[in-house]
Specification:
four-stranded mixed β-sheet; Endonuclease III, domain 1; 7 strands; binds iron/sulfur cluster; alpha+beta
Length: 403
């Protein structure tokens, strides 16, 4: 362990070696070392790998990126579907972006899917056409950090899982466990460097078992040291845990003062033409929902009637004139940074060839074909309401986005 790690480790009544070892003992009996839960962590013959065994980084990389904002039980079916559609790096690199976004639909933060796709193409060339051999994949931290969408914790997770590299991780689970273990008095994001040193200190004392220790830390956070009602009575770190000793584990991690989420009303037009086709547009490749399809619309201005909002937005964004008819549905949707209310009206197209003035492309589609386009989850109820209004059978709707 480095000198700075010693300095940073508070007097808990247990040192990093004791804590790492007790955690591993617990994990061997109670960890999520289960093929059905983490199939990417198993060898081809379905064993948990020995310390000197390499795993294929492909499935691990996909899982780590999916897990960045999402819990394991939500990720698992998405990972399985993804591996069916894109079982190899070559298959992913060769895939059409729409197919990639459709496979991701419902996981949210769609830029992650686009980055996975772009990164597959970047990775393929240096692997010299043989990505099935784990040893040919990049094995140093800097190489992974240079790839789009890969931060330090994701890179540490990939490398420790695939190659048993002695690299720490610091995801939400690990941050919560360490904040409680230390009863840290400030929000963890303000002291990231310190949290990294703690996580590194735990890895440094069991370098041959980095893969297992990182998994154990995540499993402890996900199964016992949960956000609400932690199961301290079954925790291998109870004797050393400062938050437990203080009688207030749920007070940690200390949170930033909550801020009021901005609220916006969005007027949305479901525009039908005489052929009973509906108009959709594809968002630019930026932001949270970049590249997804949606019904056109935009923000209501102060004092503006929603019908006027819709007519104005459709003229500004698509250069079309519509008549705004009855309300189809009103949908509230909360993201992590804002709350939106979509007030959706049926519209009849009057004039103007739709132009993608604020989007990548626009398209008239048959309502029954909407399932072929990746939509954000907030649109699922709009699609369902439209199909019901038109007397058409329901189609598979987008799942719930993670906020
Ligand atoms: S004792 Fe409780 S609060 Fe402390 S690490 Fe264990 S589960 Fe978390």
């Amino acid at each position: 362990m480095r000198g700075s790690d010693h300095d940073a480790w508070p007097d808990l009544g247990a040192s990093p070696p004791e804590l790492s070892r007790s955690l591993l003992v617990w994990w061997e009996r109670h960890g999520r070392r289960d093929l059905a839960q983490k199939p990417w962590m198993f060898t081809a013959d379905q064993r948990w790998p020995q310390p000197d065994e390499l795993l294929s980084p492909f499935g691990i990389w996909i899982a780590e990126v999916m897990l960045q904002q999402t819990q394991l039980q939500v990720v698992l079916p998405y990972w399985q579907g993804w591996m069916q559609s894109f079982p190899t790096l070559q298959a992913l690199a060769a895939a059409d972006e729409q197919a990639v976004l459709l496979r991701w639909q419902g996981l949210g933060y769609y830029s992650r899917a686009r980055r996975l796709h772009a990164t597959a193409r970047l990775l393929l060339a240096p692997l010299d056409g043989d990505p099935t051999d784990p040893a040919r994949w990049p094995q140093d931290l800097d190489a992974w950090l240079a790839l789009p969408g890969i931060g330090r914790s994701t890179a540490g997770g990939i490398l420790s899982s695939a190659f048993n590299s002695p690299l720490a991780i610091l995801d939400g689970n690990v941050r919560r466990v360490l904040a409680r273990l230390m009863a840290h008095p400030r929000p963890p994001m303000r002291d990231q460097a310190l949290f990294w040193r703690w996580s590194e200190a735990l890895i440094a004392v069991v370098p041959q078992r980095s893969r297992d220790l990182n998994q154990a830390l995540m499993d402890l956070g996900a199964t016992l040291c949960t956000p609400r009602n932690p199961s301290c009575g079954r925790c291998p770190w109870q004797h050393a845990c400062a938050a437990y000793a203080a009688g207030s584990p749920a007070d940690y991690p200390v949170k930033e003062a909550p801020r009021e989420l901005p609220f916006q009303v969005i007027g949305v037009g479901v525009v039908l033409n005489e052929a009973r086709e509906v108009l959709i547009d594809q968002r630019l490749n930026e932001g949270l929902l970049g590249g997804m399809w949606e019904f056109p619309g935009g923000k209501q201005e102060p004092g503006e009637a929603i019908e006027a909002t819709i007519a104005r937005e459709l003229m500004e964004e698509l250069a079309i004139e519509v008549s705004v008819d009855q309300e189809l549905i009103c949908v509230d949707h909360a993201y992590s940074h804002k709350k939106l209310r979509f007030v959706v009206h049926l519209c009849r197209w009057r004039s103007g060839e739709p132009q993608p003035l604020a989007s990548q492309q626009v398209r008239w589609v048959r309502p029954q074909d909407l399932g072929a386009y990746p939509f954000p989850a907030a649109n699922a109820r709009i699609i369902a309401a439209l199909l019901e209004h038109l007397g058409l059978p329901a189609i598979q709707a987008p799942a719930v986005d993670q906020p």
